[in-house]
């Protein structure tokens, strides 16, 4: 059976160009970048070059990039680092109810440690309100963390407006840009963000590498202790080959971003057209305008996530849902619950399809047909 | 025309135990298109966020990866609560001893789960039950598993023709010992896993404690049939007819047993001796009858029956008494017939069907304390 991958928001295949760049490092450059000899310098050079490319990709300088093991670690580092460093100024944090669990669970942990966290609600399209944020800002607010692009529905939050609002406030501004990086053009100064998380494996790079942008001058209490790597901000020997792969992935984005966006948008259109032609009844979760090109989240009334995903997989279609359904437990999507209320049936009958370079038009057409057949069979 | 095994999709209900693991293995070896599905019916998540389902699902994942078959999970907590657990509590409330496994097979495994399997394009649903299905002239028969000690037809007595036409029991022809051997030979992750015991949602926990979380206990008097007070009971629902342990009656003479209940007066009847006369009856009446295949009840049906799991068959005669109910007369008087449990009928190895024990009789009259 042919399998079609429509789950690029979960992770992406490593781009062949990325593999090509990584192999020589894996084969030949094994030195520890901290070592004071030839081997160490070889590795260090790779880190420096990558750091430069990556810093430029978001309008930052090299000193502001801290390599991490990925998005989750970057989010943890931002929240825990600021909270612990700034707690003398206040113990109030603002985030949203639709963040990735890497942020939400960390915020919940901080609540247990005595911090107060405000979770901003979102509207039916998944957006927070700036006024709402403004009303919740307090003198003791030390951090505002709002994701750039939601991983389930693709909605793009008004990051620049938030940055503007926070200009005159002591609170640092963190954004989880894991789903934005590679699709949106990002300039940290224009956006007014102080901290920004990314991950390589969402942009056709390897797993196990990401970075946290930390605006110059901001001190973070480290989340792990050991050597003095990453300017004492992240102990542990750097993953040189992965860093090289991350750089290659970022370089590809710099050249291909517009083309990719154009293509993914057309996939979206073709996909929905295919469903409509087969008479499938569905609704779109989230906004159709302020959303990224690659993600589309659809609700199929009269179905449920378990049946849909199992049927899709058995027909060779790989998609996913925000509802966790491992080990038989169905947790309704927290994002859709925040948008529609937890009793809304959309929280349990919605599927996220996310397109990427693993797809072509033919595949998208085929998958629309297969999805339509399954939904029609289940709702017949 | 029959489909080739490779074009025949079989969904296997996998619990993470050795039986369903081997069931999946055997079907895979026979060349079927096997899909493993884990079913979650009960949430026992503790205060640390740990639940047994997570561990069991991990075992399903490991076995399915060893067999190279896809695996998924499905949740029937709501259906289980509505159809099985509610019945379970209601029966205890009326002083009876329910059989949730029979109900779970009827309403969940071979209804909700079967429907789910069919919605996935399955041709058959398979489970690790020890039973056999045989087709004869378009009629389906359910036979005991060849391992007499493991035979599970008792729990499957409510299955219909339609259900049997869609199920496979790959372990029916194999003794349990051999199932373990097969698992070991293939190095299955669950080869040495302990069999689960007890009622699935209670697991290893204390039964009394569990029940008290859901039903208020009403302590009362423990008396002989003659009315002599022998102590206090903790609540009638905690006791089963014929039970010896946990009564706390000392003194000389033969041990004491539960011989009946008076729900109205909230009295637990006790009597001395395993063979206490009050425990014996010679007939019962059953409701919720399901006949797996057509039986002729114009004449009294002579067959054998089981009144509880893992009991030897007894010779009986079955008479219809209207409303789809039957009276079952025993060739020899029987000890501790328990209302709420299943009575299951057999003709040799063929399971004819069964029902729920509702009333117990002796010398043509109902035994009040066993009602």
Condensed summary:
Chain A: It is an enzyme of class 2 (transferase). The complex is a heterodimer of chains A (380) and B (371). Helices cover 42% and strands 13% of the residues of chain A.
Describe the 3D structure.
The complex is a heterodimer of chains A (380) and B (371). Chain A has 380 residues and is α/β, with parallel strands linked by helices. Chain A has helices at 16-28, 38-57, 71-86, 101-112, 130-136, 159-166, 188-191, 229-232, 240-277, 305-314, 334-340, 361-379; strands at 4-5, 65-68, 92-96, 116-120, 141-145, 172-176, 195-199, 210-214, 283-284, 295-299, 317-318, 350-354. Chain A folds into two domains: 4-12 and 256-379, Aspartate Aminotransferase, domain 1 (Alpha-Beta Complex), CATH 3.90.1150; 16-251, 3-Layer(aba) Sandwich (Aspartate Aminotransferase, domain 2), CATH 3.40.640. Chain B is of the alpha+beta class and 371 residues long. Chain B folds into three domains: 7-185, Rossmann fold; 217-272, SH3 type barrels (Roll), CATH 2.30.30.280; 280-370, Elongation Factor Tu (Ef-tu), domain 3 (Beta Barrel). A six-stranded antiparallel barrel of chain B has the order 12-15-14-13-16-17. A five-stranded parallel sheet of chain B has the order 3-2-1-4-7, with helices on both faces. In chain B, strands 9-8-11-10 form a four-stranded mixed sheet, with no helix packed on it. In chain B, β1, α1 and β2 (33-40) form a beta-alpha-beta unit. In chain B, α1 (18-29) packs parallel to α2. Chain B is globular and about 70 Å long. Classes of the chains: A alpha/beta (380), B alpha+beta (371). The interface between A and B is medium-sized, with 15 and 21 residues. Chain A: Belongs to the class-V pyridoxal-phosphate-dependent aminotransferase family. NifS/IscS subfamily. Chain A: One of its GO terms (molecular function) is iron-sulfur cluster binding. Chain A: It comes from Salinibacillus xinjiangensis.
């Amino acid at each position: 059976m042919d399998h079609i991958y429509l789950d690029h928001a979960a992770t992406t295949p490593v781009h062949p160009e990325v593999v090509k760049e990584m192999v020589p490092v894996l084969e030949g450059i094994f030195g520890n970048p901290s070592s004071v000899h030839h081997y160490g310098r070889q590795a260090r050079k790779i880190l420096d070059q990558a750091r430069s490319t990556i810093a430029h990709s978001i309008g930052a300088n090299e000193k502001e990039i801290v390599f991490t093991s990925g998005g989750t670690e970057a989010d943890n580092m931002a929240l825990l680092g600021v909270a612990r460093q700034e707690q003398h100024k206040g113990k109030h944090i603002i985030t949203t109810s639709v963040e990735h669990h890497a942020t939400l669970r960390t915020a919940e942990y901080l609540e247990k440690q005595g911090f107060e966290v405000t979770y901003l609600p979102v509207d039916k399209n998944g957006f927070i309100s700036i006024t709402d944020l403004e009303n919740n800002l307090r003198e003791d607010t030390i951090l505002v963390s709002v994701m750039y692009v939601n991983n389930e529905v693709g909605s793009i939050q008004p990051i620049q407006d938030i940055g503007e609002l926070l200009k005159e406030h002591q609170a640092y501004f963190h954004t989880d840009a894991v789903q934005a990086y590679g699709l949106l053009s990002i300039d940290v100064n224009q956006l007014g963000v102080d901290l920004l998380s990314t991950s390589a494996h969402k942009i056709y790079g390897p797993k196990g590498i990401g970075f946290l942008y930390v605006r110059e001058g901001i001190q973070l209490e480290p989340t792990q202790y050991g050597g003095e790597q990453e300017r004492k901000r992240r102990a542990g020997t750097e993953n040189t080959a992965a860093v090289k792969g991350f750089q290659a992935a970022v370089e590809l984005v710099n050249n291909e971003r517009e083309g990719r966006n154009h293509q993914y948008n057309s996939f979206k259109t073709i996909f929905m057209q295919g469903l409509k032609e087969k008479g499938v009844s569905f609704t779109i979760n989230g906004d159709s305008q302020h959303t990224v090109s690659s993600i589309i989240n659809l609700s199929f009334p009269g179905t449920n996530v378990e049946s849909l995903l199992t049927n899709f997989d058995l027909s060779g279609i790989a998609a996913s849902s925000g509802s966790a359904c491992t080990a038989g437990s169905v947790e309704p999507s927290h994002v859709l619950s925040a948008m529609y209320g937890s009793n809304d049936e959309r929280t349990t009958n919605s599927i996220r399809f996310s397109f990427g370079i693993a797809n072509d038009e033919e595949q998208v057409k085929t998958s629309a047909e297969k999805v339509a057949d399954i939904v029609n069979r289940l709702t017949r | 025309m029959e489909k080739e095994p490779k074009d025949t999709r079989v969904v296997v209900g996998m619990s993470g135990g050795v039986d369903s693991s081997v069931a999946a293995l055997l079907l895979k070896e026979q060349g079927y298109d096997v899909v493993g599905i884990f079913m979650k019916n009960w949430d026992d998540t503790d205060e640390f966020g740990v639940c047994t389902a997570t561990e069991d699902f991990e075992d399903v994942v490991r076995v399915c990866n060893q067999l190279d078959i896809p695996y998924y999970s499905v949740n029937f907590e709501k259906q289980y609560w509505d159809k099985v657990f509610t019945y379970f509590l209601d029966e205890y409330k009326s002083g009876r001893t329910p059989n949730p496994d029979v109900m779970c097979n009827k309403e969940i495994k071979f209804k909700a789960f079967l429907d789910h399997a069919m919605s996935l394009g399955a041709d058959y649903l398979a489970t690790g039950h020890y039973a056999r299905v045989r087709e004869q002239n378009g009629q389906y028969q359910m036979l005991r598993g060849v391992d007499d000690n493991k035979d599970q037809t008792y729990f499957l007595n409510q299955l219909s023709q339609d259900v049997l036409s869609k199920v496979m029991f790959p372990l029916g022809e194999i003794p349990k010992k051999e199932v373990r051997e097969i698992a070991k030979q293939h190095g299955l992750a669950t080869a040495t896993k302990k069999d689960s015991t007890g009622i699935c949602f209670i697991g290893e926990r204390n039964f009394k404690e569990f029940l008290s979380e859901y039903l208020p206990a009403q302590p009362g008097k423990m008396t002989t049939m003659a009315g002599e007070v022998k102590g206090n009971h903790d609540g009638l629902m905690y006791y089963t007819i014929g039970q010896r342990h946990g009564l706390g009656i000392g003194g000389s003479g033969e041990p004491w047993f539960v011989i009946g209940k008076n729900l109205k007066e909230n009295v637990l009847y006790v009597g001395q001796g395993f063979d206490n006369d009050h425990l014996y009856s010679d007939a019962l009446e059953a409701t919720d009858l399901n006949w797996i295949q057509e039986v002729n009840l114009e004449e009294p049906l002579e067959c054998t029956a089981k009144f509880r799991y893992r009991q030897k068959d007894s010779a009986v005669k079955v008479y219809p008494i209207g409303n789809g109910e039957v009276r079952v007369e025993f060739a020899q008087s029987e000890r501790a017939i328990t209302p709420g449990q299943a009575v299951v009928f057999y003709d040799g190895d063929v399971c004819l069907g069964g029902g729920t024990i509702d009333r117990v009789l002796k010398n043509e009259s109902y035994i009040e304390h066993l009602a």
